[in-house]
Structure formats: C-alpha cells, structure tokens
Amino acid sequence: MKKNVLAKLMGVALIIVTVATSFRPSAGDPIKVGVYGPFSGGSAPMGLSMRNGVRLAVSEINAAGGVMGRKIELVERDDEAKNERGGQIMQELLFKEEVSAILGPINTGVADASTKYSNEKKVPQIINVAAGAKVNDLFATTPDNYIFRIAANDYVQSEMIVREALQKRKFKKPALLCDDTNYGQGGRAKMEAALAKRKITPTSVGKFKLKDTDMTAQLQEAKAAGADVLLVYGIGPELAAIANNLEKIGWKVPMIGGWTLSMSNFINNAGKNGNGATMPQTFIENGVVNGKAAKFLAAYKATYKEKNIPVAVAAAQGYDSVYLLKMAIEQAGSTDGPKVKAALENFKKGYTGVTGTYKKPFSATDHEAIHETNVMMGVVKDGIVVPPIK
Amino acid sequence: MEQFIQLLIGGIAQGMIYALVAFGYNITFSTSRSFNFSHGNFLMLGGVVGLILYINNQIPFLAMVLAVVLVGLLMGLILYKTSIEPSLKSKSNYAWILATLAFGIILKNMVEVFWSTDDFRFDSPLGNAPIRVMDVGVLPQEILIIVVALCIVVAVESFKKYTIFGKAIVAVSEDKNTASLMGINQQFVILFSFLLSSVIACLAGILVAPITMVGATMGTVLGVKAYAVSIIGGLESGYGVLLGGLIIGLSEAFTARYISTGYKDAPGFLILILVLLFLPSGIFGKTVIKKV
C-alpha cells in the first residue's frame, strides 16, 4: 500500500514537471524585456525619460509586427536609485520574470551592484544611461561578459571635459567639485587622470552630498585656490545649487561637467545662473534638423506631450537601446542569451539611430557603442541645451 | 575676512533652519514625552502645498501662508488621532516611534505618487538676487529665515511663560498627573502641542523652500539633522535648540571650508556623541530623575 502511494506521488510529480517545462516561452509568446531605473527621487527625470524612450521604441516595433512575429513586453521596475534595490530587481527580473534581455539602469552604483546577475544568468544587458558603471572593465574578471552600453562613459566624458577646458578654452587652473556617489567619485578619479596626462593637478578637489544646498564652503575653497574653471560631476539638483551659490558669493567662473548638466532639474532650478554650463551630449534636442532624430522627436512629443524632453539624452539612448536589441535578436534568430550576445558583438547590418550611426556598435572586446566621435559638447542657454557655437 | 563672514552668515542661516525644525520636536516632547519622528515630512508637505498654491496657482503669498497653517493644523490633528493618542492610551512607551515613522513614510509616498518625484524651484517672494555688502552676498531669504526662526522660538517661549494656557503647558510637562489634579485638561494640552509643532513644521517648509528647492525628499535629511540639534540643545529646552542649531550649522560651514568638504557632518555628530556622553539631557536640558 505504502509503495503504491509513493509511486502515485512520483507520477504526479512527473506530470507537474512535464507541464511546467512545456510552458517555456515558444514562438508567438511575447519577448520579455526588463527595464529598470529610478522612476522616483532626484534621479527620476533621467529614469522617466529613458523609460519613455524605451516605451516609444517598443510601441513602434510592436505596431510594425514585433520581433520575429513576437511582441516585446516590458517588465518595468523602479530601483529608486538605491544600489541594493538594483540587485533585488535583477534577481526578480532574471529568475522570476525570466526576461530575455535587460535595459538600464541610470545610476552608476545601481548598475555596479546588479550587472553580475546578468552575467551569471547569461542574459544580455544594455546599459543605456549609467556613465560610470563598469562595462569593458568587467572583461578582466568575467571574460564571458554580457554587459553592453550605449552612453558616453566616464572615460569619454572626462577626456572631453578636460580637453574642452584646457585645450579649447585655454583655462589653466581647474578646480574639481564632485558629489560623493559612485558616479561623482568615479568621475573625479577619471578627470584627475585626464588632467594628470596633461601634467596638471587640480587647484582644489571639493566634495558634496546629495541634497546639499549650501555649496559656499566648497566654492570658496576653489576660489581661494585661484581656480579659473570649475569641473563638476553630480546630478541636477546639486549642480543647480552650485550655480546658484556661485551667484550668491558673486564669483563668475565657467562650469564644465558631466552630461548631467543637461538634466531638467539642473536647468530649471539654476535658471539664469545655469547659462553657459557646458557638457558632453550624445543627443541635443534643439540641434536636431532632420533624419531619424527628427522623426524620433516628433513621435516623442506627440506621445508624451512634453515641451522639452526633461532628459533628452536618456530618452534618445533608451530608444536606441531597444532597436539595438531588436536587431541583435533578429540576427541571432533567437532570444537565447549567448546567441543574442554573439549577434550584438558582430552586427551584420549597421544601425542608424537617434544618437548616431553605428556600423559595428560592439565587438567581442569592446562593449561600448559610444566613443568620442559620437559625442558633442552642449551648452545651456536660457532654459535649453543648444549645440556649441561654431 | 569676507570669506569668513560669508561662511558665518551661511552657517547661521542653516543653523536657524535646523533650530526651527528641532523646535517642533521640543514642543511635543515636553508635554507628552513623545514627538513626531516624521517631522521632516511635515515640513516637506508645507513646502509642497506652498509651491502648488503660490508658484503654480499664483495665490497671494499671505493667503498661501494661511492655507499652509490650516494644512499644518489638519495634519497635526490626524497625526495625533492616529499615531499619538492610541499609543499614549495603551501606556506603550514606544509605539509612537513606529506610528509616527509610518505616518511619515505614507505621507512621503503619497506626495510621490499623487504629485511628483522631482525637485522644483521655489522663487523667494523677496527675490533671488543676493544683497551684496562689501564682497559678502546674502540672500534676502536667509535673513528672513533667521528673523522668522528667532521670532517663532521667542514667541512660543514667551507664550509658555506669560500666559495662563502657556503655564498649563509647562505644568503638564513638569508633572502630568499633578497638572490633571489641578484641573488642567492634559489631553488637550498634548493635542495643542502637536498642532503647534506641526504648524511650525509646515511653515518651516515654505521658509526653507527657496534655499532647498521643493520635492518629496526635501525634509528627510533636515529632519534627521534637526533631531541631532534638539538632542544637543536639550529636548526640553526651547532656547537650547537655537544654540544646538548654531553649533551644527556653523560647524558644517567651517569644517567644509577649512578641513575637508568630505568631513562636513563629522564635527556635528561628534559633538552629539560628546553631549550624549557627558550631558545626556542636552546642554540646556534639565536632568530628570525618573522615580520608579
């Protein structure tokens, strides 16, 4: 009798296993793609614009019949710009939702706390905003690297910032001012390295925290050290506090810094004090004349009814990241992680996107789509970012 | 020299902000031995309501202030009824800690869900152009903060000292049960202290908004720092928070400039530890012997 029950139980278990495995995604099921970023808090404008760009691309692709006849389904999660949330979300996306690919995130710290899960599960992840996150650096520890990026990384950014300050505008005494997050401190280290290459040490190196509003002390330190240009790395609200405090202490000094100087919450909160702030950009809304970028802009504005995109760079990179993924899946003919990764590393057709034209965006040793040639310097002028005056 | 004065003024203004927020902790602690751990979020609510009315809807400044006072009263009442009263009734010593914390989390998340997660600029009614004397720039709003904070603290302390109802508050904070025996409505005094504290928090929200910008997270750090300030000054001492605020505000400004911006917060919290070690009831606090 006992044996009988055991046999029955085993039979039931066998049935469950067979049924469960037969529910694996097959042709016709939607392709699940995870998207995560900060949709609340001080980094939210970047996250929301990125998500809008991603959603726009997905709705275009789905309207045109999807990828290999399958629709893309987004699984969106808010990481609140918290590093530990990033890791939790990734485990959920990969092991519970079983997504085929991942897009995002925005914050460097969140990215560094979560990319290892993609590599573990061998699911390709395209980082579409986080500039400081480790991507190519991961090859050293993880030769089989599934992390890609379409965003100007910190090496590209700091090199361009330093070149703009020293070579183009002939400043001699740069002072650094960076926030204390992974993003800010990574940027500081890379700007210091770029300066050291030119045998220059910064006159002072200041630090501030998220939510700091009084930057008087930091600015006075830089001023007393005789700085003639401020190189800054932070996010919108605190960068605005720097611009406003400069006005308060009556010091006129140009600000050059990371792409985050184009964030809406920098431009709006700094008002006229933000004029002249210069930063590397992969996409400048007000510099668009025609082509794919103009089409993207028209579609974005029609869908989201925003006068200016709060963070145009994030929206554009988010949009392009979806199309890169789509082309890779089509080329691979499968959503299988290793196959998609191989396709990403070896694009047969080039891709012309909103942020530029990519003949071969990635290779087996270089997972960065954006290099200095794709990036230009933008300048804040009366509430918008404009291309540099030639 | 002008650098020093600039830091001094900045530090004093920042210190007065801390003091004003910390004062909210003191008012209720003295009457009920409890306070609103989400005081910073009440401040945030004041700032957000102020921004919506004054900046977005162009309502006259004084009408907006009145509306914010009403919001403060309402929130104080809700907080008292939901988080404080049940905890005091149940004779639980600590339930109010979690209850008020939870209240604040709900408040902050509601603002994020129903309003916005972004930070907004709040233009000072006095203008954003700094007044420049010699080489020192002072924002008109900074002067306003210092004046208003001092006025509120002095007004409330005088009220406690010179009016009958104020004396009733002092009586309740000295000894609840004896005060009750003398015919003072203890519950009402505690409710009143929570209303007052929450109105001050909301007013502080519009006061600091032009400096800190307005957003759902504007009160979080302020609330924590102000808590340290009220411990340093003495949880039961009204004027103590002014000193506590100045200690933290000035130490932040001068440390950032002359030691390192990375260690800005260190001296303040070091002082907090020293105060807890050697003067556990704060610099101005009265040592209370709890009879068992």
The third-level CATH topology of the largest domain in chain A is Rossmann fold
Q: What spatial order of strands do you see in the largest sheet of chain B?
A: 1-2
The biggest beta sheet of chain A, please? 5 strands, parallel
- Gyration radius over CA of chain B: 19 Å
| CATH class call of the largest domain in chain A | Alpha Beta
How are the SSEs placed, and which strands pair?
The complex is a heterodimer of chains A (390) and B (292).
Chain A: H1 2-22, E1 31-37, H2 44-63, E2 72-78, H3 83-96, E3 101-103, H4 108-121, E4 125-127, E5 147-149, H5 154-168, E6 174-179, H6 182-197, E7 205-208, H7 216-224, E8 229-233, H8 236-249, E9 255-257, H9 264-270, E10 278-281, H10 291-304, H11 312-332, H12 337-345, E11 351-352, E12 357-358, E13 376-381, E14 384-386
Parallel strand pairs in A: 1-2, 1-3, 3-4, 4-5, 6-7, 6-8, 8-9
Antiparallel strand pairs in A: 10-13, 11-12, 13-14
Helix pairs in contact in A: 2-11, 3-4, 5-6, 8-9, 11-12
Chain B: H1 2-32, H2 39-56, H3 61-89, H4 95-114, E1 131-133, E2 136-138, H5 140-162, H6 164-174, H7 176-181, H8 186-212, H9 220-233, H10 238-258, H11 266-278
Antiparallel strand pairs in B: 1-2
Helix pairs in contact in B: 1-5, 1-6, 1-8, 1-9, 1-10, 2-3, 2-4, 2-8, 2-9, 3-4, 3-8, 5-6, 5-8, 9-10, 9-11, 10-11
